[in-house]
Amino acid sequence: MPPEDRLLRPLLLLFPARSGSTLLMQLLGTSPKILFDRVSPFEYRYLAFLLRWSWQLADGGLRRDEWTLEQLLDEPATSGNWIEPPPFPLPAGFDAMGRDPMWHDTFRTAWREFSERARSSTISSPQLDPEPVWYAEKSRALFRYSLQDLGLEPEVIYLLRDPRDILMSIWSFNKKRGTTYFSVIEGEAPEKFAYRFVEERKLRLRMILEMAPKDPRATVVRYEEMATDLAGVAAKLSDRLGVQLNAEEVLANQSEFRHHMSSAGPEASMQRWRREMSPEIQKMFTEIIGQELQALGYPV
pLDDT tens digits for 207-216? Predict the structure, then answer.
């Protein structure tokens, strides 16, 4: 297994849907020092899987009542037979004071093995650098805190986009495909969904306002910056991560990702809420998160 200094460092993208995460992953993918599967929309989450797998060894973990001693002997292929935390109490002293919980050591062992295998597999860029440093993944804050507990200290990128444009992008994306993705409920009135959306968005904006400025391992990247100055974003992240990102390569390949877009392009998707959002829903945003929008530099 690789020594500790060869472990891949997690690089987590914390993002709401339709905020430019796929575009940012394209940009990160131009550096061979950053590993992840180059398969659009870049959502093969090895890190999240290994964390959740390790959590099953946590004593007192949540489990279903039907997860019993007898099910441990069932054939793994049985429909609905999922592995869960042990269906019995761990012995006294198993995770004794002064020792790391077993799931910590299990994850560290798995991550060492993953770091070694990822460097020599197709997850790596075709122009593989001899010493890749990062493993990038679209993620959630929950995993960031677990990795901190494990001593891995991930780097975090907060993706920020005007939530009014996010809402318009969600509606456009679903209309284009006839789907109800992103927590949309079929038949729900637009105003009702918009209210649920803006209430949830308030928590995300407060997190960025209150946490990001105090976090030495965090960088905020705005969708609007990527849409108008991708080269500038590339330069900022290149300096931050110690890699070389290539904005021109991303822009040259945009036609390959046209299916993921809900507008003519990134620039056309900016401030579309002014053109397409009803006055009633605009007022809802102003009343509920107007203060947060202004604090982040968005017009109200």
Answer: 899 988 999 9
- Residue 171 forms part of a structural domain: yes
Long-range contacts of 272-278 (CB under 8 A, 24+ apart): 272/165, 272/168, 272/169, 273/162, 273/164, 273/165, 273/167, 273/168, 276/168, 277/164, 277/167, 277/168, 278/190
Q: At what angle do helices 279-295 and 190-211 cross, to 10 degrees?
A: 0
Tell me the per-residue pLDDT of 128-181, one tens digit each, with 9 for 90 and over: 555 789 999 999 888 888 898 888 889 999 999 999 999 999 999 999 899 999
**Cα separation of 90 and 169, whole Å?**
48
- Which pTM was predicted? 0.86
The enclosing domain of 33 has a CATH number of 3.40.50.300
In a domain, 36, yes or no: yes
Number of domains composing the chain: 1
